[in-house]
Structures are given as structure tokens and as C-alpha cells.
Amino acid sequence: MTDIRDLSELDRQIDNAEAHALDQNAPGRKWDQRQWIAPCGTYGCLAGNTVLDAGLTVVDNTWGFGFIGFEIKETGENVFDAARRILGLTADESWMLFNMENTIDDLRAMQKNLHNGRPIREGLDD
Fold first, then answer.
1. FRET label pair with 57: which of 8, 41, 46, 85, CA 20 to 30 Å apart?
2. For the chain, counts of helices (H) and of strands (E)
3. Alpha carbon of residue 85 to chain centroid
């Protein structure tokens, strides 16, 4: 029996990321995977946007590297774990999708691979 996953939230988040990346009239909203949570607290990387869109409050507890150092007020999780849970991803998939070097094209290629049951990085240059 084939394991069918619901990737609809991942699809929605990548669609939103692409829309923000292409919106040249939105100051500060160009896509940058390195921006985990912006100082204004209203947008971030794929992981950051996922938790913000879920209505969670992100606080900077500065104990860790990158999005690991941002904690979810309501659950005590870090941003990585909360986004992984919301998107229904494995830890390995999350590490690859949330990598700060990813472009929108990289995210789209990994999304397509997940939908087609292929290894997430298949066809991507290392």
C-alpha cells in the first residue's frame, strides 16, 4: 500500500514564498532563506513563515544557531521542529528544505520530488 502524504500546507507555503519573491513592490519581502525571522517578526524563511502563518508567536531566546534559537511561545518548540510538525516532514526533509542556500527553484524541485515519491534532493546540484 502506498503511503499518501498530505503536502498541501507545504504547497501553500512554497506558493507564498514564490509570490513574495516575485513581488517587487513589497519592500523587505524578497525571498531570502537566510532570514529566519525578520526583526519585525512578521516574515521569515520557509520554516519561519510556516509558524507565523500558523498563528504562533516566535521569541528569540538566542540559545542556538539560526532558527533553532527562535522559540515558539505557545509550545516551547524551536522554529525548525514546529515547522517540521506543521508541514508533516521528516527531520531529514526539513533540513534539506530549510537550508539557507535554497532558492525558490530549489524549493520547487524538492516539492516536486516529494509529490512524486522521489528522494528530496534528486536532480539538484550539490
1. 8
2. 5, 2
3. 11
Helix (H) or strand (E) holding 29: none
Q: How far is CA 94 from CA 62, 85, 113, in A?
A: 21, 10, 14
| Amino acid symbol at 103 | T
pLDDT digits 0-9 by tens, 18-76: 887 766 555 554 567 776 666 666 567 888 889 989 999 888 765 555 555 678 889 98
Read off the pLDDT of residues 112-122 as tens digits, 9 standing for 90 and up: 999 999 999 99
Spatial CB neighbours of 105, under 8 Å, sequence gap ≥ 6? none
Print the SS3 string covering 44-78.
ECHHHHHHHHCCCCEEECCCCCHHHHEEECCCCCE
Give the helix/strand (H/E) hosting 104.
helix 104-115
List strand residue ranges (DSSP E) for 1-126, in order.
Answer: 58-60, 70-72
